[in-house]
Amino acid sequence: MQGKRNQVRVVDEGKKRGEGERSTLLGDNAQQLVVESHRSVQTRSLLPYNASAVRTVIRESHNLSQAITTTAAPFVGTQGVQPTPGVSAELTISALALNRNKRALYVYHQQRIDTIKDKFWEKGGVPSNVFAQGMETRSNMTTFDEAFAKGYSDLCLQFKTSWYGSSRGDGDLMDEEDDYDDEGEPVQLMDAVDLFGGGTNIAPPKDLMVDVRVIKDVGDVELLSGNRINLEKGKQYYLPREDVEAMVVSGAVELVE
After folding, report:
1. Domains present along the chain, CATH in parentheses
2. Torsion over CA of 212, 214, 215 and 218, rounded to 10 degrees?
3. Which residues are CB-neighbours of 55 under 8 A, at least 6 positions away?
4. What average pLDDT score do residues 150-156 get?
5. Which string of DSSP letters, residue by residue, matches the chain?
6. For residue 70, is pLDDT > 90?
7. Poorest-confidence range of 14-18, 107-111, 145-149, 150-154?
8. At 53, is the pLDDT very low, low, confident or very high (cuts 50, 70, 90)?
9. Which of these ranges, 7-11, 19-23, 227-231, has the smallest mean pLDDT?
């Protein structure tokens, strides 16, 4: 069978390189991409792009597609001619391997997109806080990743600014009685839901009070309780989480684990 000959050829080439090296079998590179995607999810980080494995999986997929077409050609458009059990098994295995490669490529690239979006929102929707030169996430981004990050950021900014300073017209989703606050002032969507106000992590916080260290001189600030406090650079404070979330996002303070 063609698929078996391809696999044997790969194993033979691996033996030529040396018995100490592990031969690469069909599907190994696709599995590697899936493992890296899982590792990226677990570490909440963007790993370097594995261009070598991606190219190999694409090349394998092209070879599988051509092998399927060639093997099935004698049976296409014919009546009463059925492939032998061996040919049917070869077509089935090749089709399953091709589908697995496609799924692995999709998972790998979709996970990179999801990680970029998560990093964007973790920093409050400020691209310079996560995609600036020298930062870890930026150093592992490809040109395509950078293009997506810029387009996604521009789209979010366009959506947000389209609501500021604009009045609603007819046909809005909100009812007329919901368009105004208690003082009779019109309420804009982005005043009610701030996309850039601290990320989209909906997991409940573990503690209501947190230890923070001041990185920049913040000065005198008013807490939600109404109390005022002077935050000096280098000092550590024990404050309510909701009072410091915005300052953590802006980089003025950092959490002390």
Report:
1. 28-76+85-161 (1.20.58.1030), 207-255 (3.40.5.60)
2. 130
3. none
4. 89
5. -HHHHHHHHHHHHHHHH-TTSPPPPTTHHHHHHHHHHHHHHHHTS-PPP-HHHHHHHHHHHHHHHHHHHHHHGGGTT-SS----HHHHHHHHHHHHHHHHHHHHHHHHHHHHHHHHHHHHHHTTT-GGGTSSTT-HHHHT--HHHHHHHHHHHHHHHHHHHTTTT----TT-SS-GGGSB-TTS-B--HHHHS-TTSS----SPPS-SEEEEEESS--EEEE-TTS-EEEE-TT-EEEEEHHHHHHHHHHTSEEE--
6. yes
7. 14-18
8. very high
9. 7-11
Rg (CA), the chain: 28
Least confident of 16-20, 39-43, 213-217: 16-20
Mean per-residue pLDDT, 194-215: 64
**Token reading at 203:** 């997991």
Are residues 218 and 252 in contact, defined by beta-carbon separation less than 8 angstroms?
Answer: yes
